[in-house]
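Escalated from tier 1: zinc ion holo job.
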Amino acid sequence: MARPVSALSTREKSLTESLIRLSEINSGSLNSVGVNRVGALLSQWFCQSLNCQHQSIDLPPYTLFNTDGSRNMQPLGKLHLLRQRPEAPLQVLLTGHLDTVFPADSGFQRCQWLDKELLRGPGVCDMKGGLLVMLEALSAFEQSPLAQQIGWTVLLNPDEEIGSPGSASILANEAEKHDLGLIYEPALPNGQLAGERKGSGNFTAIIAGVAAHAGREHHLGRNAICAMAEYITALDQLNGQRDGVTINVGVVDGGVTTNQVPDQARCRFNIRTRIRADEQWCQQQLQIIGQRLNNKEGITLNLHGGFGRSPKLLDPAHLALFQLVTECSEELGVPLSWEPTGGCCDGNNLSAAGLPNVDTLGVLGGNIHSNREFIRLPSLVERARLSTLILLRLAEQPETWRRERMQ
Ligand SMILES: [Zn+2]
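Tier 2 regenerated the structure:
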């Protein structure tokens, strides 16, 4: 085994300590202060270990909609870019997110040992463990003379768990400057790589009706909640109508009290798509359903949002990269393959911008997005070895992997 790869075997204890430190800083997507603390600490570790250029970038705020349709602007944390050798023959983009799904007031803030290999904690698997794998692999790779063949950019974004609304344009821009992408989302629960991924869109529907006294003038009211109920039923009936498309209504609210006909209601929903053409079909259906509501006297529906992530499909350039990763995994004695998933991530964004990428190079564990999230700690070193080997193999033949050759 190549020296930089075998030298990693003693690193689990130190990586675990760093992981507990990162995990116990809350970095829910809308806790920009916490996200910035994680970003600052990690950037400092990258700069110390790798002596790279560092740039932090402010992002525009994230817009949510209140039930009355007004805008609620939420600040996002900073995005960090760390660069090495931008003039090298092959340019690799490594990405990871700093945020988690656990808000500042979540009850899940601390790590807990489940046994000597399993650690439970917020973001340990998705994906603070993966961020450390990235740092560890680059540190090992930089020990090799082959490192001169590869320039790399590490992109740490603060908003992946809410669909990367603020970082999408920077992801697309960086994708264009690189030859391939490595993303450190956790492995699928069975340890395998994600291949094709569904696309995703997030929407907010706001319905305005007419308020009235529930007893004296009920007939003058136009009930926004009842109109929303019709809308939601129509949305749900789209499920099963088109192969691979699902609609999930996730949040509903409206009204103030029982003796008033409510004049406000809001729902938020998510749509998953299998192929690009599904987006147009969904937009048509939303148009038809929305029109039906808007034809009702006294009822106004406004729809916000759209498809932030297109489906990730595996073209020949992606397949070549997946093949390389599986060969490296076989060499290390932990053979991997890939399978499709309904989940989506920044790998969708990079693919949409034409950058072939493998997006589940992070750690093994499970129960992500729940307070039972855990990591299998030996995977910190196993996955750092895998990425180090991938980088070494890429560096052996930089010309083969240049983007113009792959297409
Ligand atoms: Zn993630």
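Residues 97, 126-127, 160, 185, 345 surround zinc ion (CB under 6 Å).
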